[in-house]
Amino acid sequence: MPSEFGCSTNRRRFLQYLASSPLFAAGGFASYAAEELPIRPKLPDPVIWAPASMQDLITSPKEAINVFDFEPVARKNVPPAHFGYMASGIDDEITLRANREGFLKFQLRPRRLNDVSKVDMSIDLFGAKWDTPIVIAPTGGNKFFHEEGEVAVAKAAKVGNHLQILSTSASTTVQDATAARGAPIWFQLYASPSWEIAKTLVKRAENAGCPVLAVTVDRLAGRNQETMFRLRKTDTRECSACHQPGAAARVRRRPNYDGIDLSAMTSMESSNMTWDFMPRLRELTKMKIVIKGIVAHEDAKLCVENGIDGLIVSNHGARGEDNGRSTIDALPEILEAVGGRIPVLVDSGFRRGTDIVKALAMGAQAVCIGRPYLWGLGAFGQPGVEKVLELLRIELRAAMAQCGANSVKALTPALVRRA
Ligand SMILES: Cc1cc2nc3c(=O)[nH]c(=O)nc-3n(C[C@H](O)[C@H](O)[C@H](O)COP(=O)(O)O)c2cc1C
Fold first, then answer.
1. In ligand 1, which atom is closest to the CA atom of 137?
2. Which ligand 1 atom is nearest residue 169's CA?
3. What's the pTM?
4. I need a surface site. Which of 123, 125, 212, 229 has the fewest CB within 10 A?
5. Which string of b and e fits 275-306 if b means at least 16 CB within 10 Å?
6. pLDDT at 5 over 70
7. Using an 8 Å Cβ cutoff, are 177 and 185 in contact?
8. Which of 8-12, 85-89, 192-196, 234-238 has the lowest mean pLDDT?
9. 169-197 mean pLDDT
10. pLDDT at 52
11. How far is the CA of 258 from the centre of ligand 1 (A)?
12. 144-163 pLDDT, tens digit each
């Protein structure tokens, strides 16, 4: 099986990148690079397709050849602690790498002599039409990366008519993000252990016109974000002005919580949540309910049995636990368990048009993107996000055409096989 670390040219390039990267200086990578030990160094994302040297960075979105071109620019612009928060996986970051390497386990089987002179990438989700299956995944605190935060992301999403999912812990309200997007967005829910807090957040999203609630269920425990902790040490700013200990203090600067009594807030996430939560939620809201963070077929089946409207196969971009399994690897068993009864979306590690085609051909309805649009945001603000999304659309269109598929429906399981 091909591997980006198996090829000596790529390995040399990778080591050059490491040697020139601030991460090299900040982290403990020097000995790995110098001695060429057969240990995979920890990196926020496999970046071998990015510029090999920090001196070769793109200076405008127009120069970008692929989404990876934005990451080192964001690394340069964004304060180290914030970049580290975005980039970090957990522990050994095995899952972070698996999310990329998982795509190598699947190959495309293109078909020929179909008319692909026009490719329709549009999809339908819960009765709404989107021009592409590329969805903005919910990510918290986008103002960490650029002062315009989620509003810049929403405006960029509007340009390509992408669905946006807004995080509970966004640095912009659901109302402002909806206004900037100019169309209904989905709201991601961190329910917290308190029903009262969850209830207020849900009502707020419903009143803002969100048609769908994505309930995140995969963040349950504390997490060892080693890359973030290492980079944070190099950050010379005074962090305590914004970051105070405790969950309530943490969300006080997240405007979706404005006006909510946070005295019962022991954590943003809900380690006490069980399936019993879902009927209560159903009773509370008319929004469609999607569960985000499913990685096992048993839970996918339970989603269907519990009347959930859709699910997102996600390991939170390898930010929850270091379970070692990519989501593209988990996707087939989940699609099989669901059997087409509810829409299945997927995220974690998607960076290329061919990655997206593989998931759609397996049977996913849409693919959510996290870090790449944050790289674009951190690098150049809204124009950076626009370009990241445009590059993904260009790659997706080309990959579909090369597969002989002129619509998302024409992407069928026969076009993809396990390597
Ligand atoms: C900086 C950052 C913040 C995130 N915040 C949230 C969040 O608030 N809620 C949530 O459900 N997922 C959150 N995620 C996970 C994303 O929704 C998504 O699952 C993940 O980023 C996809 O993987 P990718 O970054 O490799 O594309 C976050 C991800 C990142 C990178």
1. 17
2. 8
3. 0.90
4. 229
5. eebbeebeeebebbbbbbbbbebebbbbbeeb
6. no
7. yes
8. 8-12
9. 97
10. 65
11. 22
12. 999 999 999 999 999 999 99
Check if 316 is active-site. yes
pLDDT tens-digit profile of 337-387? Answer: 999 999 999 999 999 999 999 999 999 999 999 999 999 999 999 999 999
Distance CA 138, CA 153 (A): 11
Rounded to the nearest whole angstrom, what is the distance from the C-alpha of residue 309 to the centroid of ligand 1? 21
* Total residue length of the chain: 419
Residue 22's pLDDT band, with cuts at 50, 70 and 90, is very low
Of 82, 146, 162, 316, the active-site residue reads 316
- Assigned token pair, 286: 């008319």
Q: How remote is the CA of residue 86 from the centroid of ligand 1, in Å? A: 8
| Top mutation candidate among 319, 352, 373, 392 for ligand 1, by most atoms within 8 Å of CB | 319
The two structure tokens encoding residue 299: 């839970």
